[in-house]
Structures
1.
Amino acid sequence: MIQTAFTGLFISISMILIILGSACGDDASGQASGEPKSSPSEYANLGIKDTKPESTPLVGQYQGGDCPGCDLTGANLAGVNLTKADLTRANLTRANLTKANLTEAKLTAFLSGADLSGANLSGAHLASAILTDADLVDAILIGANLTAAKLSGANLTGAILRGASLSGADLSGADLTNANIAHGKLIDAILIATNLSNADLTSVDLSRADLTDANLSGANLCGATNVILSEFGWQSVPVALSEQQKKAIATCPAE
């Protein structure tokens, strides 16, 4: 009887020790692997913004290629070939991109104060990009997507924007002197106090564009669409136009 009792007690104690050892082992392995103790379901709904570390500055290291989300503030990328590069959400504030090749690049990025003078941005995706006060003098933006881009205060003197989409873009205070926007779209664009003097606006769609205080002196409005003349004046273009410009809107000579 006594022997049986001791045997039963020994087995019970052994089982308790095994259970405790197993629990400690699981806890230790969890700590070693860095895995959270909480159930996975608590972490499954965390967004990338909650877990993604802050970007590391790559100034002086980046030489081209895809680099989404990279911090390239003030980087010198003059003349660099960035054709089709993915720079989505990259910080290129005040970067030097003069004469860089950004053909078909993905540039929904931060480009405030960046120097893009002479750069080739043909077919580039710049929708919603921040280009405030950027230098785009003589830049080539043929067929570029600049929908809803922020270009207030930007210098686009002599830029080629033929066939580009600028619908919903903010170009208030921007300088587009001698720019070529022929066959482009400026639907719902904000062009308050924008300098469009001598700009080529041939066949541009200006539906609901706000051109309050804009300078259209010498601009070519040949065949511009959705610019309505009423007894109260120009509804979509509330600025002074020459008689020649008014006639050009209705009739465009063959190119």
2.
Amino acid sequence: MKIPGCIFLYIILASCSAKKVPDNVLPPDKMGPVIWDAMQADAFTREFIAKDSAKNLQQEGAALQEKIFQKYHTDRETYLRSYRWYSDHGDMMRDMLDSVTARESRKRQKERIDEQLKLKKKNEQNM
């Protein structure tokens, strides 16, 4: 009788402590890639577009953001609402960003390994 009671108590405590994302907020698995791409677009805008005096920084940045929203089938309003919600729930924002950062790091590492293997194969063919 004690074991089922402990399991039941654990389930109740776990469900109470877990934060649920509201329906009008992007879930972490969707928000993570959107925010990652938005950060990349912002960095690109600041580092490259800002140096081109013929381009309007705000227009170019907004155009890049719209492309991101289209890519992920969302809109600016939903993104901003979600961003504010995650900002108010720092632990979930941190977990989401940690997950995205780790995924992108693995992706870059795989790309480097693939490039090294291509170079090795090319060098072996030239010998």
